[in-house]
Amino acid sequence: MGRMLAWLDERFHVIKPHRRFLQRRIPDGLNYAYCFGGLAFTFFLVLAGTGLLLSIYYIPSEKEAYRSIVMINETVLFGWLIRSLHKWAASFFIVSIILHTIRVFATRSYRPPRELNWMVGSLTFLVAMASAFTGYLLPWDQRAYWATEVGTAMIQTIPFAGDALMLAVRGSNEVSGATLIRFYSIHVLFLPLCMGLLLWMHFHMIKRQGIAKRL
Amino acid sequence: MKKEHKTETAPEGQALTPEMEPKREKQFYPDYLAEIIFCALVGFELLLIVAMAWPPPLGRVIDFTRQFQPRSEWYFLWLFEVLLYFPGRSAFIGAVVFPVVYFLLLMMIPFIDRGRNGRFKAKIVAWTLLGLFIFFTALRVIRDTWPNLFS
Fold first, then answer.
1. Residue A87 with chain B: CB contacts under 8 Å
2. Which B residues 25-84 touch A at CB under 8 Å?
């Protein structure tokens, strides 16, 4: 460790900037109610990891999506476990976010100067819900299809622009193969990118401002 | 990484008892990091146990000829329930206005908590938001479990 670190430090000067980060003080009186944010991040990492693995076998096409899920579940080594982990981690993720939000509210940690971090956190929750919604369609089974049909029909209720917006979300008049590819792209590219950016902001602000002291 | 511990040596011939050790400030590394990693591991193990015990079943193949009553994930149930109270042309309120207002209120909590009664106002908003979520989720679960209860 020492020699490798010295080698790196000689070239990139990594120790000094990280020392302030690593040795910063943590206020007294934190308890395990403070762990839900970290837990949420843990589950996000699980979602990202299992998602990467699932994408190896999953085929986002009308004809093959369902079959590829069956294959993941029955043929691929530990495929069922990876799928199960991904599915359950989504629920655990949402629960952790809710508990984390309750903790931050209870300790009133959103007060100035941390308003912006609360807002970024709220957006994280929104992106998590959007990920859950788009991911739900991907198995392309009876339940997924009709849930998305109902879910996207809500957009149509917007006055004036409703029809156009729904067409933009579905990619066709009905939920179809076009919707599947669209949702797949949003689920694996757009939203994880947003999430990564939001989490980077979230953590960076904590790093800058420190953990709020107990009331 | 080497860390400079402030260590005091015990007086000659005396063992250093825990009370005599100088109180070190809690730092991110290694104190807090160890706690975070502990939580993360426990959380992951819980997840692993649940995932192994209850793998999600495969759904049925899509059948376009049959209308199907979809069940959403538990965290969307409350929104489905709210939809029921805004039939026809008012659906816009349940489908779009309600979630948008809900989310904006959540995001604006730091700005609601301002002035003399700020915390009180923020508490009312927060409890209302949480209450709505729990209330409508519960209603939906009841409705799905006993479909004939309300009709």
1. 51, 56
2. 25-29, 31-32, 35-36, 39-40, 43-44, 46-48, 50-52, 54-56, 58-63, 67-76, 80, 83
Q: Is residue A26 part of a domain?
A: no
- Give residue B14's pLDDT: 55
In a domain? residue A132:
yes
Ordered DSSP codes for A64-92: THHHHHHHHHHTSTTHHHHHHHHHHHHHH
Which pTM value belongs to this model?
0.90
- Helix axis angle, A162-170 relative to A177-185, nearest 10°? 80
User: Which CATH number belongs to the domain containing residue A45 in this structure?
Assistant: 1.20.810.10
pLDDT tens by residue, A64-119: 999 999 999 999 999 999 999 999 999 999 999 999 999 999 999 999 999 999 99
A21 within domain boundaries: no
